[in-house]
Specification:
mainly alpha, Gyrase A, domain 2, PTS_EIIC_1, two-stranded antiparallel ribbon, membrane, 3 domains, protein-phosphocysteine-trehalose phosphotransferase system transporter activity, 63% helix, cell membrane, 6 strands
Length: 480
């Protein structure tokens, strides 16, 4: 018998038996089940299993939190049940059978942006650091920056822009590559397509925004403007999907022995043409409209209302997966206005969820019946403060309900203060306490106050709700 044999038997019973499992894979801390009939899963029985630290359903997958020993648990599960091993991609594909059309679209969007988020985070940190050394006049009575007085820092500032430019100006390359990768088509064609959107031959998108006149490709009977789409999200996404659509369709009708020649040519060339004639201009207008609406909403007289609603509802959006839509909006804002006032609220929401967990930890500090729960709550709180909220939300806050509400209220108040004081981020960053590094340096002070609100309000409300038995279930067994 293995280390987890008894727990596996209990888990299988709670999940509806081996026959109810379509696929199962695992990530760093969770088992990811796709169930034939999700209604057969007995959540209460599953969460009573000793090794299980929580469960939730997301993107059509029933996910069971095991912890750092999940790989050992998974290997024993596979061995003892004879279920075929699956990858996370297998689970995602199978899980879509349980999703409606909108959920499937959001799932696809998430998979497109996930591979490029690390680069965007790095770019945000670089922009923040460049602002510190190149924009803050901290020397010689507040008249000069580090780059003004030091050739080393001036050179460093110049060098770091090499990376920042590669990440943000050439973002369409990453998007078209990611779409080709996700759709299972030829990835190098995705990269080439992205490069045709940001080629040095084209007028830079920033030059166009400044009123510049682009050159043209003159075909005699018509002309096409040579416009670049640096940092543009929607044009790259539209072009990427057209490329994949054409490649998949052409490959089906072209004999295999000539496919290497015919498919790339007839997929790439028409896509590049359509991208510059139709998709690019339309995508630019769509992206600009979205960013204008969001920015106008956040900077209008009722910006506080927009901020309070977004801050309050962001955590529930994470549960549904709809939060992935904000990546495209943030990137468009960065392109249009040089930063984003939406992303700081996301970082604050993460902090608020962590603060609510700290409230639960404080309530149960002397409760011996909650010792096992601390194995989840303490790492979950740390994870929140570093930008990953799922363990905290699904393992603790949603389990009790009232700390989740406390975090939503704290996030809303912190978001209102952030928007009211004009906080802007250079880009998407690490979404917890380190998020301040992505904030434009002139707003560090006000964002720090926003962070204190996101820390203090959820913690205090969690204690208040517990003491006054607001939304507290009878079987919660709190020390309050």
């Amino acid at each position: 018998m293995g280390k987890y044999s008894n727990d596996i038997l209990e888990l299988l019973k709670g999940i509806g038996g081996k026959e109810n499992i379509v696929t199962v894979s695992h990530c760093a801390t969770r088992l990811r089940f796709v169930l034939a009939d999700p209604k057969q899963a007995n959540v209460k029985a599953i969460e009573s299993v000793k090794s299980v630290k929580g469960s939730f359903t997301q993107a059509g997958q029933f996910q069971v939190i095991i912890g750092n020993d999940v790989s050992t648990f998974y290997n024993e599960l596979i061995k003892e049940t004879g279920i075929k091993e699956s990858t996370k991609d297998d689970a995602k594909k199978a899980g879509r059978q349980n999703l409606n059309f909108l959920q499937r679209m959001i799932s696809h969007l998430a998979e497109i942006f996930a591979p490029i988020i690390p680069a965007i985070v790095v770019g945000g940190l670089i922009l923040g650091f460049r602002n510190v050394i190149g924009e803050i006049k901290m020397l010689e009575d507040g008249t000069k920056t580090l780059t003004d007085v030091s050739q080393f820092w001036a050179g460093t500032n110049h060098f770091l822009w090499l990376i920042g430019e590669a990440i943000f100006h050439f973002l369409p390359v990453g998007i078209t590559w990611s779409i080709a990768r996700k759709m299972g088509t030829t990835q190098i064609l995705g990269i080439v397509l992205g490069l045709t959107l940001v080629s040095p031959q084209l007028m830079n998108a920033y030059g166009m925004a400044g009123g510049g006149e682009p050159g043209v490709w003159d075909f005699g009977f018509t002309q096409i403007q040579m416009i670049g789409y640096q940092a543009q999200v929607i044009p790259a996404m539209l072009a990427g999907f057209i490329l994949c659509f054409l490649e998949i369709r052409i490959r089906k009708i072209v004999p295999e022995y000539i496919s290497m020649i015919v498919v790339p040519f007839f997929a790439l060339v028409p896509t590049v043409l359509v991208a510059h004639v139709v998709l690019g201009p339309i995508g630019w207008q769509i992206g600009s409209f979205i960013s204008d609406v969001v920015y106008a909403g956040l900077t209008s007289a009722v910006g506080w209302l927009f901020a309070s609603i977004f801050g309050f509802l962001y955590a529930p959006l994470v549960i549904t997966g709809l939060h992935h839509m904000t990546n495209a909006i943030d990137l468009q804002l960065m392109s249009d206005i040089g930063g984003t006032n939406l992303w700081p609220m996301i970082a604050l929401s993460n902090i608020a969820q962590g603060a609510a967990v700290v409230g639960i930890i404080f309530l149960n500090r002397n409760n011996p019946s909650k010792e096992e729960e601390k194995q989840v709550s303490i790492p979950a709180a740390i994870s929140c403060f570093l930008g990953v909220t799922e363990p905290a939300m699904f393992g603790i806050n949603l389990k009790y309900v009232f700390p989740f509400l406390a975090a939503m209220i704290g996030s809303a108040l912190a978001g209102v203060f952030s928007v009211a004081t004009g906080v802007m981020a250079n880009s998407i960053g690490v979404g917890g306490l380190p998020g301040i590094l992505a904030i434009q340096t002139g707003h560090w002070g006000t964002f720090a106050i926003s962070m204190l609100i996101a820390l203090g309000v959820p913690f205090a409300l969690t204690l208040v709700f517990a003491n006054r038995k607001i939304l507290v279930k009878k079987d919660d067994q709190l020390s309050a």
